[in-house]
């Protein structure tokens, strides 16, 4: 299938045509990946919003396969880094190499120079290696020996963590955790899905066909920024994030002692950008309250630091976020004439 077969989306593209292209991408991914619908949706939201994903799940749940297949469908570069304790920052971003014949230094770029980067078991490398991703995740650039190099656009980092094997792991720096747009929990497939997985593995190998380009994906990202977000929905995001810092303002007096640190302003931005992307993925040019509420647990769970009291009570970040969502009511859905005016 040639590149010309798919018209590049522009600012004048309709929500229906954009949703159709996104549907084609998802269809090709799901030809290879069985189940994991929610995880796939979050990956697409992160791609449209230009964010990064932190994924937690046991081995063998198609995390690597999902990102690799997605890269194939959009003709993007895919690279995978296996994080280990002996890794050094230069193994990620690159280094300067001295050429004895010419007497000059040349720059060897690292594996971060890709469209989709999979940081596998990121918590198995020490903090100095994890921190090597800070600049590239935020600025989309790498500085080597004082020289700045831009990474390809679009750029998405998906980092995985194994929740069941903690021996030999290192906690992620708070500054890096905050740079992840969402933390997604991937669970086991259902019995029916697992049956299909086995059938596909033992049967004829299926491959995803490229249905878009990285240029089209960049255009989709630009179009996602045109999705209308009502000020009341932004205010809802502000209240949710504020409730993680000062829950007593929202009638959660007993919750204050359970939290050490709340979410940063990045959480508010990510909630708004994520709602835009999810609305676009659902074929709309405006965001609804349910677009944001669907993403709240994923955006906040890794940004809330529980206190010793909270941990001793067996409280989890998800349970805390659920309390906050019950205390902070979402705005009403806009009426039809309001949508048309927007």
Automatic annotation (TrEMBL):
GO biological process, any: regulation of DNA-templated transcription
PANTHER family documented for this protein: MAGNESIUM-CHELATASE SUBUNIT CHLD, MOXR FAMILY PROTEIN
Name of the featured protein: MoxR family ATPase
Pfam families: AAA_3, AAA_lid_2
Keywords of this entry: ATP-binding, Nucleotide-binding
GO molecular function: ATP binding; ATP hydrolysis activity
Record organism: Xenophilus arseniciresistens
Keyword Nucleotide-binding: yes
Family: Belongs to the MoxR family.
Domain Sigma-54 factor interaction: 15-162
InterPro entries in UniProt: ATPase_AAA-3, CbbQ/NirQ/NorQ/GpvN, ChlI/MoxR_AAA_lid, P-loop_NTPase, Sigma_54_int
């Amino acid at each position: 299938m040639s590149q010309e077969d798919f018209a590049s989306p522009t600012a004048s593209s309709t929500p229906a045509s954009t949703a159709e292209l996104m549907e084609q991408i998802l269809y090709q991914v799901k030809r290879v990946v069985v189940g994991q619908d929610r995880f796939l949706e979050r990956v697409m939201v992160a791609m449209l919003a230009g964010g990064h994903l932190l994924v937690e799940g046991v081995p063998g749940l198609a995390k690597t396969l999902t990102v690799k297949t997605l890269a194939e469908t959009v003709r993007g570069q895919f690279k995978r880094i296996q994080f280990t304790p002996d890794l050094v920052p230069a193994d990620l971003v690159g280094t300067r190499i001295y050429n004895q014949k010419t007497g000059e230094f040349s720059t060897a770029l690292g594996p971060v120079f890709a469209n989709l980067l999979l940081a596998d078991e990121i918590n198995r490398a020490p903090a100095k290696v994890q921190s090597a991703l800070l600049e590239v995740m935020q600025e989309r650039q790498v500085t080597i020996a004082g020289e700045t190099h831009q990474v390809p656009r679009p750029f998405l980092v998906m980092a995985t963590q194994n929740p069941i094997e903690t021996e030999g792991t290192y906690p992620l720096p708070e500054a890096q955790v905050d740079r992840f747009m969402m933390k997604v929990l991937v669970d086991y497939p259902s019995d029916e899905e697992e049956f299909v997985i086995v059938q596909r593995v033992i049967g004829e190998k299926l491959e995803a066909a490229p249905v878009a380009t990285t240029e089209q994906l960049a255009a989709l990202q630009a179009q996602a920024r045109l999705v209308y977000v009502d000020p009341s929905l932004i205010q809802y995001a502000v209240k949710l994030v504020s409730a993680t810092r000062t829950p007593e303002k929202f009638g959660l007096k007993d919750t204050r002692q359970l939290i050490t640190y709340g979410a940063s302003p990045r959480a508010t931005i990510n909630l708004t950008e994520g709602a835009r992307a999810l609305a676009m993925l659902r074929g709309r040019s405006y965001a609804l309250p349910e677009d944001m509420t669907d993403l709240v647990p994923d955006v906040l769970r890794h940004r809330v630091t529980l206190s010793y009291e909270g941990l001793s009570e067996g409280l989890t970040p998800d349970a805390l976020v659920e309390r906050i969502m019950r205390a902070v009511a979402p705005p009403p859905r806009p009426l039809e004439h309001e949508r048309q005016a927007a």
